[in-house]
């Protein structure tokens, strides 16, 4: 079993369920993409060129300036096995793209896992800062500070007209992707979500699932992020996302209040407690059903319908029930059917129901 620190616990600090509006906003993230001047972008670089970039950037990552922010560990991807890389993806600490780059990729990770710096992903450098709850401005300030440290030591590829140059044209300009992960069950249940999401896309924002582009919005979790990186300043991008996210929070709160009114409350309670009962006793649970029922129970916790389970347990189960972490937890390679059985067992244990089904 791996003794890497990131495999020893499911929850990073940013997933603890704290922070402003944490009942709706799971996390706030800012990611900055940069490339080094005079070096081919990763997709065109040779192994030797990629190795040179990795050594250059990880040396900055190990510098005293970065340690002023916190303690960091440099992890070459070549030192990790497939399961360890999968766990990092499931914890949102690296992208699937970097997980597949095991030759010259590296991760510079803070000890609280709130900062992850990816080297030789799609771009030479991707700085990611994660905060719990609705703290997008705080995430931007920290990411900008780290960006300044790297820029003092390395010349970035920059064009006066186009801004920072990136591998993907959609990142050219500021190179910034800011996002908030939001739990929006009431908007889904009241069938308002499509109208809300349609309005979001019209103001230059994108909506994705929990794991970014191409992922499904399981468990009523939606990642709202900027689409535009060129033609707006960093502060305009952050302010636009902050303003829209604030409005979504208000809509979700209003929908929850309506659902708690007497004529709707019985149906809501029935849904929440059915999911709680199934999670507490089921012997088999696939990932899609687990995500939906965990969402129901989390809503019940946030509305005070369930009082003996903490939101932190729900956050932890969101990660623990993913395929990579399941296999790490049970220290065995599992096929799909085996994962469904183990997932149900793990959920029962965390909700206080042991695997022997011994009583209610």
Automatic annotation (TrEMBL):
The lineage of its organism: Bacteria, Bacillati, Bacillota, Bacilli, Bacillales. HAMAP family: Prot_Arg_kinase (MF_00602). PROSITE patterns: PHOSPHAGEN_KINASE (PS00112), PHOSPHAGEN_KINASE_C (PS51510). It comes from Paenibacillus spongiae. Belongs to the ATP:guanido phosphotransferase family. SUPFAM superfamilies: Glutamine synthetase/guanido kinase. This is Protein-arginine kinase. A motif (RDXXRA motif of the pArg binding pocket involved in allosteric regulation) lies at residues 339-344. Appears to be allosterically activated by the binding of pArg-containing polypeptides to the pArg-binding pocket localized in the C-terminal domain of McsB. The keyword ATP-binding applies. The keyword ATP-binding applies. It is an enzyme of class 2 (transferase). GO terms for molecular function: protein arginine kinase activity. Catalyzes the specific phosphorylation of arginine residues in proteins.
């Amino acid at each position: 079993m791996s003794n890497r620190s990131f495999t020893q616990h499911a929850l990073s600090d940013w997933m603890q369920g704290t922070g402003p509006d944490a009942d709706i906003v799971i996390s706030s993230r800012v990611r900055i993409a940069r490339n080094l001047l005079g070096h081919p972008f990763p997709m065109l670089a040779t192994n030797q060129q990629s190795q040179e970039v990795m050594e250059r950037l990880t040396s900055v990552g190990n510098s005293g300036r970065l340690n002023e922010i916190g303690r960091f560990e440099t992890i070459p991807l070549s030192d990790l096995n497939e399961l360890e890389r999968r766990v990092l993806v499931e914890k949102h600490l690296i992208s699937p793209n970097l997980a597949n780059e095991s030759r010259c990729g590296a991760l510079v990770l803070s000890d609280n896992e709130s900062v992850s710096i990816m080297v030789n992903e799609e771009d030479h450098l991707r700085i990611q800062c994660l905060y719990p709850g609705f703290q997008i401005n705080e995430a931007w300030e920290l990411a900008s500070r780290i960006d300044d440290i790297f820029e003092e030591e390395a010349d970035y590829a920059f064009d006066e007209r186009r801004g920072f140059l990136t591998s993907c044209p959609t990142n050219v300009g500021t190179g910034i992707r800011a996002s908030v992960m939001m739990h929006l069950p009431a908007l889904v249940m009241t069938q308002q979500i499509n109208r809300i999401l349609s309005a979001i896309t019209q103001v230059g924002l994108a909506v994705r699932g929990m794991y970014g582009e191409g992922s499904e919005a399981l468990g009523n979790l939606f990642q709202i992020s900027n689409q535009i990186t060129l033609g707006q300043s960093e502060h305009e991008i952050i302010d636009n996302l902050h303003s829209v996210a604030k409005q979504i929070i208000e809509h979700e709160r209003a929908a929850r209040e309506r659902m708690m009114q007497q004529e709707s409350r019985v149906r809501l309670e029935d849904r929440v407690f059915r999911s709680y009962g199934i999670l507490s006793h089921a012997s088999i649970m696939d990932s899609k059903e687990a995500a939906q029922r965990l969402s129901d129970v989390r809503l019940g916790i946030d509305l005070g319908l369930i009082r003996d389970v903490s939101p932190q347990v729900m956050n932890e189960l969101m990660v623990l029930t993913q395929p990579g972490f399941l296999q790490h937890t049970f220290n065995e390679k599992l096929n799909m059917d085996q994962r469904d059985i183990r997932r149900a067992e793990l959920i029962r244990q965390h909700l206080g129901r042991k695997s022997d089904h011994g009583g209610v």
